[in-house]
Specification:
The protein is of the alpha/beta class. It is 35% helix and 25% strand. The chain is built from nine helices and ten strands. Strands 1, 2, 3, 4, 5, 6 and 7 form a seven-stranded mixed sheet that branches. A three-stranded mixed sheet has the order 8-9-10. Helix 6 runs antiparallel to helix 8.
């Protein structure tokens, strides 16, 4: 039997490159929320994949973008810190792009400074021709000595086995860091908040989503009169403006009801129990620059 291997693999890339979709795809778990909107991931999320002779801890990081507030700066700091701590880097780029953009250039500089084994993943190959894929490979292959360059489609499930094979090849012998039943380092409260945020991101108008954050006020398990297990969960959705609050609630409360309905369906599957979910909406102006709130999104010191 071959020696057991383990290690941390950090996924980096520009915002909206598909990092969260890739994380879920590689681990076969719904760990990170995914939407079509940029800057969805706000903090580092770990997902654990157990193989026959290896344990891979993937780390999804916030996408690199031009920060507009302290929250944006915190997200970029987190991405850079995690890039420095991973044993291997997965650099995810959008295969539909014709040139290396400003944010990818910044990431290449980070990669060069960290000097970590790096695998380049060219995503969204289902949307482009083979000629376009070849052009993207040519663009990047002279920028850094990548361990491998792998065209993939995280959305269409193409390339997973090849990516895992390359990672296992690079990993060094090591211990099992997490119990075999664990698949993420997120708490149940964090998972609840992220599921609700995902539904809000998918349903709300353009101006609202980036001004939202969730706070779980109550999460208590009990039994009904018939002896059935149920979770009572109460979450406050904070937004930036009164006008946003009106949009989130919707006419006769219909929008908030839809967010809750879709979130409850996912949460019942995730927690494998009935959910009694209550959502509240409150205004907290300029929370994206509030240091106390931003602590929630900062990388936790070991």
């Amino acid at each position: 039997m071959s020696e057991f291997k383990s290690g941390f693999v950090t996924i980096i890339g520009e915002t909206n490159a598909g990092k969260s979709t890739l994380l879920n795809y590689l681990t076969n778990e719904k760990v990170a929320i995914t939407t079509f909107r940029p800057q969805t991931t706000r903090t580092a999320i770990k997902a654990i994949l157990n193989l026959e002779n290896a344990q891979i801890i993937f780390i999804d990081t916030p996408g690199i973008h031009e920060p507009q507030n302290k929250l944006g700066k915190t997200m970029i700091e987190t991405a850079k810190e995690e890039a420095g701590e991973g044993d291997i880097l997965l650099f995810l780029v959008d295969g539909t792009k014709k040139e290396i953009g400003k944010n990818e250039t910044l990431l290449l500089e980070e990669i060069k400074s960290k000097k970590k084994p790096t695998i380049l993943l060219i995503n969204k190959i289902d949307l482009v021709s083979k000629e376009q894929i070849a052009k993207v490979i040519t663009l990047y292959k002279d920028e850094y000595s990548f361990e491998a360059i792998i065209p993939i489609s995280a959305l269409k499930n193409k390339g997973r086995e090849e990516v895992l094979k390359e990672i296992e090849k690079i990993l060094k012998p090591g211990p099992m860091y997490y119990d075999i039943e664990e698949y993420t380092d997120q708490t149940q409260r964090q998972l609840v908040e992220e599921v609700i945020r995902e539904k809000a991101l998918k349903l709300l108008q353009e101006e609202v989503p980036h001004g939202l954050y969730m706070e779980t006020e109550k999460m208590k398990r009990r039994k009904t009169k018939t002896g059935e297990a149920i979770y009572d969960i109460e979450v406050t959705i904070y937004c930036l403006k009164n006008s946003h609050k009106g949009i989130i609630i919707g006419k006769n409360g219909e929008m908030l009801k839809r967010i809750g309905q879709y979130a409850r369906q996912d949460l019942e599957k995730m927690l494998q129990t009935k959910i009694n979910l209550k959502l509240w909406v409150k205004v907290k102006e300029d929370w994206q620059n509030n240091e106390m709130i931003l602590e929630k999104f900062k990388k936790k010191k070991k």
